[in-house]
Amino acid sequence: MSGERAVDEAALHESVTRRSAAARELLRAIAADFSPAVFASSLGAEDMVLTDLIVRESLPIGIFSLDTGRLPAETHALMATVRHHYGLTLRLYYPRHDLLEAWTSEHGINAFYESVELRKACCQLRKVEPLQRALAGQRAWITGMRAQQASTRDGLPLRSVDTANGGLEKFNPLAEWSEREVWAYLRQHGVPYNALHDRFYPSIGCAPCTRAVAAGEDVRAGRWWWENPESKECGLHPGRP
User: Fold this and answer.
1) Structural domain boundaries of the chain?
2) Angstrom distance (rounded) from CA 218 to CA 214
3) Fewer Cβ within 10 Å of end Cβ, the chain: N or C?
4) Active-site residue among 122, 123, 206, 234?
């Protein structure tokens, strides 16, 4: 290893150590001051960092995920790995069958490709409505969002009030982390991650709405790739574009 690379790796390690300590401190404060609190995990790389931190600290923060019914097999495989690796069974929330059956009967199984409005309506059924059930009765929720992930997340705060979900406190402990720092943490602590990340899927959602990205593309370029960047949110995060 060259001297320059060694210095770079040392700086990265120091940065990850510093950010990890800050994230742990924030998570402890959330558990102490905003109970009951939950972490919404999509099982992406960032979410696995937070899962590891919460489990390592034995924090009383519930961890749940939304199973939309269209997730990749690799995401389900990671759910099983999380159970064996951490002894943690994720709480899963599913779309309401009656609403989903009515919508697909009217619009078709893949109507989300036809317009932004139909895609967001699909997200509403498969993600937003289950999220609302998952957050019922909570005082705070936590996400793995980072400011660098997309233009729609520029200026992402560490803490905000989610007025769309009843005024819950919303925390983004990794808001200021870089992608390099996320992956350095995963490597340093042997944290399991979605196999699709090794196939150039930096951001993973539903299978029909996610593709691999090319070199130089934005990390969320593979999400809803047929849409303009400014529309690439699903409605889970009110207050963001």
Assistant:
1) 3-195
2) 9
3) N
4) 234
122 is catalytic: no
Say if residues 192 and 85 touch (Cβ distance below 8 Å): yes
Phi/psi of residue 40, each to 5°?
A: -90, 105
The pTM score is 0.91
Question: Hey, what CATH topology would domain 3-195 get?
Answer: Rossmann fold (3.40.50)
- The one-digit pLDDT tens for each residue of the chain (241 residues) are 566 677 689 999 999 999 999 999 999 999 999 999 999 999 999 999 999 999 999 999 999 999 999 999 999 999 999 999 999 999 999 999 999 999 999 999 999 999 999 999 999 999 999 999 999 999 999 999 998 876 555 679 999 999 989 999 999 999 999 999 999 999 999 999 999 999 999 999 999 999 999 988 888 889 888 888 766 666 676 554 3
